[in-house]
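We now fix the convention by which a protein and its fold are recorded. The integers have meaning only within a learned vocabulary of local backbone shapes. The record below shows the convention in full.
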Amino acid sequence: MIETVRTPWHLWVVGVLSLLWNGFGGLDFIQTTTRGEAYMRESGFGEEMIAYYNAMPGWMYVPWTLGVWGAVIGSILLLLRRRWAVHAFALSLAGAVVSLIYSKVINPPPPLPAELAVMAWMPFVIVAIALFLAWYAWTMAKKGVLR
């Protein structure tokens, strides 16, 4: 006899919120990589910050891509109750951590204008959310909710 594990209500809440949050990250990635400076200006970035992003080394696109799209795919897989969500969120977490190290240790950006100063904390928020989602997916897989 096959035993079915019921899907807890919180999986749907976490999954939908995760998809909304990470979907915005995907939109930002697409806008930044396709519209570039125009999008950054519309977002309130000054010339110094735009120059910083334009000078980002090519290798940084790997963790950025893994971080963003790993999270989007992980969110979808979580809603589909697929075990692969754990791996997708783990890749996303790895990308977020590398991005955090780059932006806070290796090559910090120029100071942000006062109206964007809160954005200096965003890499930490992103890593915290990525860590939570990886842990949550791992916990749901361990409980047999993800198959």
User: Anything to note?
Assistant: Residues 9-35 form the longest helix (27 residues). The chain is about 70% helix and 0% strand. The chain has a mean pLDDT of 93.
